[in-house]
């Protein structure tokens, strides 16, 4: 992980506090969330979506975005992350319509649009899967301080991709406002989403 991203992670960890009531019932949850300004980290980019169409992050203006880097053959973090996000959106309630989940694949060699579409359909989310060339994906990862590394192939021919596990919370204006660690519960994610929605206004 780049040193800059690691330092931000430590600082944000110090800001985090234990969750109280479920986010949809606790207005005090909003006060617990300290939304940060990450400066140059993050920003717009363009890749190909899971329907084979060009997609730019700027197309999500007006919506909250939960962005993460992963891949469809991921055995643990990615399915767990999507399950946590699905639960968080349940807690958010009707406002979930203003939230878009974005998965940027760090395995573009296997994750073509058809594979991403099939994978995401199993989670019941308003989600977009993105892919591109190796260089395009690497550029977006650098932009967000994300890391990944393909591991050697096994005897069966498959391989794993080690990758950073942050969920990036992006506000309706396209600004990165929070990094969620992989152990933060759905209630915390929901509180962050609601805090951004409240800050953005109707």
Would you give an account of this structure?
The structure is a single chain. The protein has 202 residues and is of the alpha+beta class. Helices cover 33% and strands 20% of the residues. The chain is built from 6 helices and 9 strands; from the N terminus they run ααβββαβαβαββββα. Helix 3 (77-92) crosses helix 6 (186-200). The protein starts with a helix and ends with a helix.
Kindly provide the radius of gyration, computed on alpha-carbon positions and rounded to a whole number of angstroms: 16 Å
Q: In what range is the share of β-strand residues?
A: 15-25%
Low-confidence sequence ranges: 1-31
Helix-strand category: alpha+beta
Number of helices: 6
Q: How are the secondary structure elements laid out?
A:
Elements: H1 3-15, H2 28-32, E1 46-49, E2 54-56, E3 64-70, H3 77-92, E4 99-105, H4 113-120, E5 127-131, H5 134-143, E6 148-150, E7 161-163, E8 167-170, E9 176-180, H6 186-200
Parallel strand pairs: 3-4, 4-5
Antiparallel strand pairs: 1-2, 1-5, 3-8, 6-7, 8-9
């Amino acid at each position: 992980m780049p040193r800059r991203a690691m330092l931000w992670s430590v600082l944000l960890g110090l800001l985090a506090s234990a969750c109280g009531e479920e986010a949809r019932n606790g207005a005090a949850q909003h006060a617990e969330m300290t939304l940060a300004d990450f400066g140059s980290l993050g920003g717009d980019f363009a890749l190909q979506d899971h329907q084979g169409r060009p997609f730019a992050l700027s197309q999500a203006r007006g919506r909250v975005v939960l962005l993460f880097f992963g891949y469809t053959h991921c055995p643990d973090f990615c399915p767990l992350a999507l399950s946590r996000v699905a639960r968080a959106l349940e807690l958010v309630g009707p406002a979930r319509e203003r939230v878009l989940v974005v998965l940027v694949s760090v395995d573009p060699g296997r994750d073509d649009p058809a594979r991403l579409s099939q994978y995401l359909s199993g989670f019941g989310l308003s989600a977009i899967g993105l892919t591109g060339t190796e260089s395009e994906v690497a550029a977006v990862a650098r932009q967000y301080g994300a890391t990944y590394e393909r591991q050697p192939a096994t005897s069966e021919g498959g391989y794993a991709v080690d990758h950073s596990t942050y969920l990036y919370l992006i506000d309706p204006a396209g600004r990165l406002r929070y990094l969620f660690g992989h152990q933060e519960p759905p209630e915390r994610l929901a509180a962050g989403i609601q805090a951004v929605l409240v800050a953005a206004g109707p």
